[in-house]
Amino acid sequence: MSVIDHKPIHTVATVTFNLYRDIYKGIRSELFGVTQAAGSTDAADRVARTALAARVTNLATILEKHAEGEDHHVQPPTEMYLPDVADVIAGDHARFEQRVQDFTALAHDTVNATGSAQRTRMDQLYMELASFTGEYLGHQDIEERVVMPGLQQALGVDGCLAIHAAIVASIPPDQMAKGLAVMLPAMNIDDRVEMLGSMQQHAPAEIFAGVWGLTGSVLPAADYAELGIRLGLS
Predict the structure, then answer these.
(1) pTM for the full model?
(2) Which of 43, 131, 149, 214 makes a 20 to 30 Å CA pair with 10?
């Protein structure tokens, strides 16, 4: 079994709690956005190439830290209850680590490229990001539609919630901010209310205030206002 030969699941198993949901909405959105940006950026514009390289680096950091959290918190129970799938996940993570390093290096190569190499390097970066995105989507599909139902069946909802809580608790504030900045715009209003409502209830007031400020900086004004109403903040 691999990402390449994985067959689509037409009947999706229902899960009460999907610990991948919010972060994967954010990662998918940023993969699509970065790939689109690589395809549309003016290759002759060094400022634009530099900005793209910074965005690629930020995406790479999010992918790297997400994989580390999975390896530490999700992989052990997956190995216990879904060993065949765990082997696929481990292989994917090892391969993705190298691919992320490669496309990050390529993004930085575009910055100082000159002459005809500017367009060549940008085309190479676009193709690599598109290829990686396609493969990563298949990996996410396995985790959300195979691993998640399997873990819920084995551990119950409370067990899955405990894994998610451990992952969140392990994320440093700066990395949490990076993740929220890509997640929140990709989430729907119900997702946002659920996530921020929990923070509002359980996090220290100063922490929630910081998150709320970040939220306002990444959401359209109308979405931010509606979210504030639903959270009782306005």
Answers:
(1) 0.93
(2) 131
